[in-house]
TrEMBL record:
GO terms for molecular function: chromatin DNA binding. One of its GO terms (cellular component) is nucleus. Keywords: Chromosome, DNA-binding, Nucleus, Phosphoprotein. Pfam families: HMG_box. Residues 37-105 form the HMG box domain. This is TOX high mobility group box family member 3-like. It comes from Notothenia coriiceps (black rockcod).
Length: 111
């Protein structure tokens, strides 16, 4: 009995190929503390938040994906000095986050 060159022998193929975790059990994800400070959003996310409503107003039937593509092309064509406005907002938010996170962690240690 000859095998065709296109078919692979079944003994080589593992049933766990392409699966996360393989044959082991499911590991539980560590639950997040709802009191932990949230990470700041990126400069692009700040820009997205500012421009999304205007684009949605001009194109009321646009899907989220279409709006995202428009915002992405606007971000790419934005000058570096205009991007700096959002990058500065992001840096300020990041400093506030790190400060709040440090306070949160010292409170956790003392408990």
């Amino acid at each position: 009995m000859s095998e065709s060159p296109l078919s692979a022998p079944t003994s080589i193929i593992s049933p766990a190929v392409g699966r996360k975790g393989g044959a082991g059990g499911k590991k539980g994800k560590k639950k997040k503390d709802p009191n932990e400070p949230q990470k700041p959003v990126s400069a692009y996310a700040l820009f997205f938040k500012d421009t999304q409503a205007a684009i949605k107003g001009q194109n009321p039937n646009a899907t989220f994906g279409e709006v995202s593509k428009i915002v992405a092309s606007m971000w790419d064509s934005l000058g570096e000095e205009q991007k700096q406005v959002y990058k500065r907002k992001n840096e300020a938010a990041k400093k506030d986050y790190l400060k709040a996170l440090a306070e949160y962690r010292t409170g956790q240690i003392s408990q």
